Amino acid sequence: MNPELAYLGTSGSTKTVQPVHFGKFETFLREGELLYFQHQGVELIRRIYVAVRDQNWGTVPNQVEHIHLHTQPHSFSTTFQVRNQADEIDFQWQGSISGESTEPHRGKLIFTMEGEALSDFYKNRIGICVLLPAHLAGTRVRCTKHPQFGGYIEKGRLPERISPHQPFLDFSSLEIDVAPSTTLSLTFEGDIFEMEDQRNWSDASFKIYSTPLRYPFPVLLRRGEKVKQKVTLTFETKAIPSSTVIHPPQQSPRIFVSLTPQKTLPALGFNYNEGIDRFHERAQRVLSRLKPSHLRIDLDARFSRRTNEEKVRQALDTVGKIGIPLWFSIAATTAKECEELLDLIPWQFTSRILISHGEPPWHTPSEYIARAKNAIKKRDYRCLLGGGTRGWFAEFNRQPPPFSELDLVFFAVSPQVHASDNETLVENLSTQSLLCQQAQEMSGLPVVLSPITFTVHFNPNATQREQRYTPPLPDPRQWGLWGMLWTIGSIKYALQAETLTFYELLGPRGILPSPEAQEYWSRQGVEEIEAFPVLHILKEMGERKAAQVLPTQSTHPLLVDALCLQEEAKIVLYVWNYSFSFQEITIEGGDFYPESIVTYDAENFPDLLRSLDFHPQKASYLGDRERINLVLKPCSLSQLLSNRGD
Fold first, then answer.
1. Are residues 216 and 329 located together in one domain of the fold?
2. Nearest Cα to 269, choosing from 389, 352, 391?
3. Partners of 182 in the beta sheet?
4. Helices and strands, number each (H, E), in the chain
5. C-alpha 238: how far from chain center
6. Global pTM?
7. Is the same domain home to 298 and 229?
8. pLDDT in tens, 239-289
């Protein structure tokens, strides 16, 4: 089997990332984008790219060609041509990126785009976006307003807490004190720019973009209309900056383990979806093995009473004999609709009710909570009530529910609200910790991430109402090893949540393959598919749900990461490699010494698909007791077991 197929669930989807060094600076180029601009290993810019956003905020993919790259010891330049086509949208542009290091600690970058509409179409945004890494939170900023708004200087800081609204508006340049005696300056041409805190959507960045969101959208772009923008970045320091090191030069990744327990694993559940009734015997068998903390069922006033009743019936047929608690998510637009949906709930099987509004601003109205409390009281039943949003933390942050009336709070998480590349998905994992922390501080209540989906399940900002509920095409990475790695990464960084609801139960967005998925893998030479790899790791975590989590830290979390669990005297360390190359790593800290190791990789990937009961062959670990050295295979997860922890 093609290894890329095992890694990503499909082949031919990887993009080439080209490292470029000039003087004391380093950056990476990826098909018309600039990534991880850094000075001596310190990240300054996460990404610069051009986004073409349709009227529902969908990103039209870049088709890049004619790339030319020229490098010298202290400079580089690249030019390329791009076409963006989807439905009625047809836009082409020429891009250029150049960089130079004029002195050891002074550098300059220029990114330009010149484009033209080849058809009439509606757009919400077209232009250059700059992402600042989240570790710059709290740094001083001097913002020069666009001449249209007076051109004066506004002083402030990048927010440390996630800002519900834009921290800086209507500017043409920014100066950021990234460290003492160290300044990063950005100047923008071609439009009015503003900044949003992308951590609201779990992105680990602050995004600078144009045109201001308060301006009307969508906007009709006529054939022949042109768009031209430019951003110039300068960096100057009088001292070597000290900050977060994303890519330390010439160091192999290290994992540090502490043997001080942190907390227990969050409870894990799944989202129930339609169609499972055709396979309820198989679903019952798998659920009996997984023993999830709950199944979440969505009841929506957009659908008929009969449709919602059928969904409840199917769920009861599947899980009624297993005894898995049911969670019901209620989405209504009036109090009466809310009450009608509450009447459909089988209370004897229900442990929690999550209530949200079915239209903007997507919050939980107090009146809905009152109706739910009355329904519970009338039935003399104990059931916890959750408030929040079916949308993202942005909606929760901007319109919080009435905390004093609730037992818990919830919101959804997806790594692909803004971008879908592998690097972005890994970057976004760490932000889940901050989301949980801020939600708990805001509410004083237990936090539930529900649902966590690999692709977006919902688009609250779509201009066309029907597009809010139209999910994108399934992401094949969820079927491969990469989806398994992202999932355990999510569990690691969402530890402050009380409960996590992952994915759907069945189908291309789920953990159980549907007949269509079985047919797909049959064409790849794998017969009798029973489980996606992600199911194995969720099963593993479910079996260890009483385990204590021991803190781990990676020096290269975008490449390799780890999760360590302790069950009495037994310690289990999971280490994984997101990249498609071998990674030599060192594990340090505590008295942990593994006795055996098992690995999930491309070699045993077909067996992972065939059987939920598959266990990789265990091998004895022989090595240095002081420093554990491992070579991780591409896109793999290794499990190290020890019975010697104190």
1. no
2. 352
3. 179, 237
4. 12, 37
5. 36
6. 0.94
7. no
8. 654 444 444 445 799 999 998 888 999 999 999 887 776 776 778 888 888
